[in-house]
Amino acid sequence: MKISYDDILIKLYGILNEMLEDAPELDENTDLLADLGLDSLAVMRLVEVVEDEFDLAVPLNILADVKTIKDFSEQLQKMLEEK
Amino acid sequence: MAFFDKLRPLAEARQRLAEQGVDSIYVVMDEILSATEAIINGRRSILVGTNNYLGLTFDPACIEASCKAAREEGTGTTGSRMANGTLSGHVALEKELAAFYNQKEAMAFSTGFVANLGMLSSLMGRGDVILLDADCHASIYDGCRLSGADFVRFRHNDAAHMGERLRRLGDRAANTLIVVEGIYSMFGDQAALKEIVAVKKKYGAFLMVDEAHSLGVLGAHGRGCAEEAGVENEVDFIVGTFSKSLASIGGFCVSNHPELELIRYASRPYIFTASSSPSAIASTREALKIVQHRPQLRQQLWDNANQLYRGLQELGFAMGPEPSPVISVRFKEAEKAFSCWQGLLKEGVYTNLVLPPATPDGGSLLRCSVSAAHTSEQISRIIAAFTTVSR
Q: Is B152 on the interface with A (CB under 8 A)?
């Protein structure tokens, strides 16, 4: 499935803005935990929404390498390319 | 970051508990009086949080078997199954487990946690996929991590959600292992195994069921949720523990796949752990006989569970979804759960306090586990104690 990195970013911004009541200004370097304060339950909710948005099954083990929105977008791009 | 800084959040959480008057998260049982009573803080207390479903911890036959094994075979094996730690009792227990479950193969592990860790980490590897229920036990999550496989979770007990993920996995679905529990340890609800099996078959995936809380509790012969749901032939691996209904310590896996025997040569948590002590193996074997020969214990357990569930429900508590030997009272605020838990201890009732992040939904729980050994009068006293602390 072809989808650009920028399109993934835009979708992620949209999802996070919808999830968070008072989302700060988001950019690629926004840290999901430190800047957005996502706890483990919120991260699981985010994964579920992302799975539905991109029609993916997202393995939780990739989250070990995900700190920022950029990290997450890159992981998603990789998974979508392999699909 | 200094070396111990990573532990600071734990220190802060413990400090918050200390400010509420708790200097330890552990309750010390000063003296165990029976399967259902202990002295805690100098007070005679009813135990309703010990997973002792059939109440066999003080069964005379189990105790005698355990003592005899210790006298004849010693207090420990001092070695792993692959070295000097396989005694005739370990082999006999594996045969008895295989016969009990009508499966060809069985492996005994040193604990239930190690059974999940040992099975998942050796059965699955890089490139494989594990699909697990969101509410699975920590040992399953840790087994997934240790395996190196991709692990994807699905919404708790939601077979459709699970199927959607299998569809998205495409060709990988056929080599996916689905992992669920028979009875879930937090809310006491049963796996929707019929629905899960139907989806599993559609995609050709494999299924592992952890019967830790359902062995001895469900099914006409006490084999667990798979027996209760009539889907035993569709389950590829059953894992479980000796530390609940069987009132000992240890874990196991049974399967009709002959490849289970090969896991012995691959499973590091199996190979590099000392095997269960002769006394633990002996009491487990005795308890397994009791599960098969005293079905009235199961009936008594369910009578008690229904009495407690109904009693607490009538008090207006938020509960788990169905009557079960695991009965959880749910609280939104940890402080309220904590004060009720302390109040119950003062009333002479021991329950499990479960706080986030250990809970699935971010709430807090007072978890009760009912025993066949509870008397109806004890259950009434537990309900009365809940009445007092909820005022």
A: yes
